[in-house]
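Quick review question:
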């Protein structure tokens, strides 16, 4: 999975929060505290599109940009990628499950069909 820079993560987070997508100018407005040039926003969006994180709706002008997947899908992909790098997946899973709350453990159990 491609690594995202800090500005790319900010852009993607903003797009995840915008259900209907945003134009580059709209995205710049949402990120107004960063004082970004519109060309910078376009550059970041182009990079994210090439990496497969963003798609452009070319059916309108100006183009709207939307996230290709949900935040939850992205985080799950990151977790899978990290787990795939572990030489001992079971040890990593055991340690991870040892760090989650009881309510998260119960939820994971319910997803797997276990009853408490």
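Suggested answer, residue by residue:
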């Amino acid at each position: 999975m491609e690594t995202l820079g800090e500005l790319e993560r900010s852009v993607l987070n903003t797009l995840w929060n915008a259900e209907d997508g945003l134009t580059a100018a709209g995205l710049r407005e949402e990120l107004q505290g960063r004082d970004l040039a519109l060309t910078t926003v376009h550059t970041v969006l182009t990079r994210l599109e090439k990496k497969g994180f963003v798609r452009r709706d070319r059916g309108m002008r100006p183009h709207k940009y939307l996230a290709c997947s949900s935040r939850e899908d992205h985080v799950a992909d990151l977790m899978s990628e990290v787990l795939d790098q572990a030489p001992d997946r079971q040890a990593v899973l055991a340690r991870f499950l040892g760090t989650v709350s009881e309510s998260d453990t119960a939820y994971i159990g319910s997803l797997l069909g276990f009853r408490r």
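Why it works: The two ends are 36 Å apart (CA to CA). The chain has a mean pLDDT of 92.
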